[in-house]
Amino acid sequence: MSDSTPTLVLTGGQVLTLDAGFTVAEGVAVRGRDIVAVGGDAEMRALAGPGTRVVELGGRTVLPGINDSHLHGAAYGMTKPPFALAVGHPAVGSIADIVTAVGRAAAAAGPGEWIVGLGWDPGYLAECVADPRRFPHRRDLDAVAPDNPVCLTDFSSHMVWANSAALRVCGIGADSTPPPGGVIDRDPDGRPTGVLREAAQALVQAALPSPTVAQRRQAIRAVVGELHSRGITSYTEPGLGPGGSTTLFGGLSTDNLTAYTELAADGELDARVSVLLLPAPMGGSADDLRKGLAELRPPAPADPRRLNVIGVKIFADGVPPNRTAWMSEPYADGGHGALCVHGDTPALRAEELREMIRTAHAAGFQLGVHVTGDLAIDAVVDAFVAADTAMPRPDARHYVIHGDFIGPGSLARLAAHGWGVNMNPAIKWTISDLMDEVVGRERSAYQWPVRSAFQAGVAVCASSDAPITEPDWRQGVAAMLLRESKASGRTSGPEQRVGLADALRAYTVHPARQDFAEEWKGTVEAGKAADLCVLDRPLLALDPHAITEVEVDMTVFDGRVVHER
Questions:
Q1: Is 214 exposed, middle or buried (0-12, 13-18, 19+ CB in 10 A)?
Q2: What would the pLDDT profile of 482-535 be if each residue is shown by its tens digit?
Q3: Which one, of 345, 356, 408, lies nearest residue 384 by Cα?
Q4: Beta strand pairing status for 560-564 and 552-557?
């Protein structure tokens, strides 16, 4: 085979290039690690040589490799056996189901051994749906695990459900004070119910046994293999560092950055991973951020196209289902939530957040800020503007993570500065009915205003936030096209629907920009990295309801076929 002959040709199909004109080609040719040609069927066949593998597409669609731009890869790997029980929907449908699963685990566990699970969602627990006043309680777990500490993290990773044994081991009682940015739910007599929210989760999670770096590497490799089966070749690991040391299994800890670095150095990282550092914990301060950045000195990666540390993550507030997002209007049952950074008053917390953002901006980092409530989002965007005014950086590419209730004013300011927003359409699909109860149907319909963001000129990224939802971009695309509820099928905010081209760009083109990598990935064009996703059918004109049924027939990463059905 000559140096100019393609090693792989995919032809006879529907190649959605995702270029600026949304060009549809018939084939694509790959040589080595790069795309060398895109065009008509006859043209692609003419390029093939005796040693070229030619894949007959038969009308099937080819996309750029999918980029899940907010995916906790290492943490997602550690939510699965042997690390944790699956206690999310549809594996369980009730508190009784969870109690049964925990009871089985307790029967097999040794004395005092921790039982850990992840995924429970009150919106899908029969007892909670039947009676909104019913909520998971330590007593539910005490009945089957009186002597084993139990820690069950909810689907959002913003709430823990613990039993009495876990509370005892961790010294949590009626007199315990939650850390800044945390909430301990209590019975009328002041005793903890076993539910700990936001920063208070760390009171239990910090006591869990920590996996070794070797186990973390194993979890990451397994996740990458799963992602290949879904057509995903790039993802952002949104927050690794000392600020994540007390998360579930240290899922956001520096140990995971070490695992990624070792995998990349050993040539075993078969994905393109961008990393946001997490120098400060939820509820942290500007001093925590400065100390964390001083502690974090990741080595330069051998191949920045495989592993690249590009920014810093900060937690600004909580999440709407937990009533911890900072909102201008009260929740249906009262309260406004709050910023979850250091400070005794809203004003002090807002100033602390501004200083944290200023510090990271001045240090030259891209900022990705977890923020969901409209008041909190406005505070974050204000801080972006203030930091950039004091020290202009024309291509910082800061972005709002989640941005559930972002308003027109903040969208306009993001667009004006070239900053972005990273939204989670599959979470919208999952929690729509629950949010009707939390904030009322009108505000719930607005949550994740994807169309408004596109119309404002913001580069919108869409992501799974796995393990919050499965890393399934097909469900995310369908959710953006349909805006329907998983539980009831009811439409929620149809005015925020977008078309297929924009939905696909949110998983390809715009994440490449977020990664500072649009010059070499994110579209199917000559000269770009040979990362491709081959579907089992043509995607154009497909009924949106059928998108979730689409299978990934082949994934090409760095010019190699890494998945094939």
A1: exposed
A2: 999 998 999 999 999 999 999 999 999 999 999 999 999 999 999 999 999 999
A3: 356
A4: antiparallel
